[in-house]
């Protein structure tokens, strides 16, 4: 597994919805939040970068959103999450989404073996959809202490 340790700050401005993953159902919670977010974005025809961004935080908190190209000046019903991460481990998974949990666990183990300590938030950035699961791209970012 080829994990990059990035020490250049990452800034993300994401708009979407937050929730709490009850019973450890992070995926189910994030999917519901993502669907709700896309309904609002599409209904308002807001220009966006098109990548789903899932952010996992303390206390089972989950945020699903997207980066907007133009932030509406009127009342926006989406929540705004601004992240500033100074050091993180990065891995790009190419393949089926159902392997992401397993890849994340392997990534976490590899990070620890290399003497780093993971902290929240953990971020998944989903690339553009394709029907060919072998070509799906997901960026996994684990914040480091």
Kindly report the CATH topology. Answer: Multidrug-efflux Transporter 1 Regulator Bmrr, Chain A
Poorly predicted parts: none
Structural class: alpha+beta
Shape: globular
The count of domains is 1
At the fourth level of CATH, the homologous superfamily is: Regulatory factor, effector binding domain
What's the CATH class label? Alpha Beta
- The portion of residues assigned to helices is 10-25%
The span between the termini is: 21 Å
Can you tell me the CATH architecture? Alpha-Beta Barrel
How much of the sequence is in beta strands?
35-45%
Radius of gyration equals 15 Å
Trace the largest sheet across and list its strands. 1-6-8-7-3-4-2-5
Q: Largest sheet at a glance?
A: 8 strands, antiparallel
Number of helices: 2
Number of strands: 8
- Quote the average pLDDT: 95
SSE arrangement, N to C: EEHEEEEHEE
Structure overview:
- The chain is an alpha+beta fold and 145 residues long.
- It has a single domain (4-144), classed as Multidrug-efflux Transporter 1 Regulator Bmrr, Chain A (Alpha-Beta Barrel).
- It contains two helices and eight strands, in the order ββαββββαββ.
- The protein has helices at 26-43, 100-113; strands at 4-6, 10-20, 52-56, 61-66, 79-85, 88-94, 118-126, 137-144.
- The chain has an eight-stranded antiparallel sheet.
- β3 and β4 (61-66) form a beta hairpin.
């Amino acid at each position: 597994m080829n994990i990059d340790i990035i020490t250049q700050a990452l800034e993300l401005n994401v708009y979407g919805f937050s929730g709490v993953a009850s019973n450890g159902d992070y995926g189910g919670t994030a999917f519901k939040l993502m669907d709700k977010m896309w309904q609002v974005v599409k209904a308002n025809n807001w220009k966006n970068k098109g990548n789903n961004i899932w952010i996992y935080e303390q206390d089972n908190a989950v945020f699903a959103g997207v980066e907007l190209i133009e932030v509406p000046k009127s009342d926006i019903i989406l929540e705004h999450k601004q992240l500033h991460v100074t050091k993180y481990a990065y891995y790009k998974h190419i393949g089926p989404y159902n392997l992401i949990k397993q890849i994340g666990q392997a990534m976490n183990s590899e990070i620890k073996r290399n003497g780093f300590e993971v902290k929240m938030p953990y971020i998944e950035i989903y690339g553009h959809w394709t029907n060919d699961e072998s070509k799906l791209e997901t960026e996994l970012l684990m914040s480091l202490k």
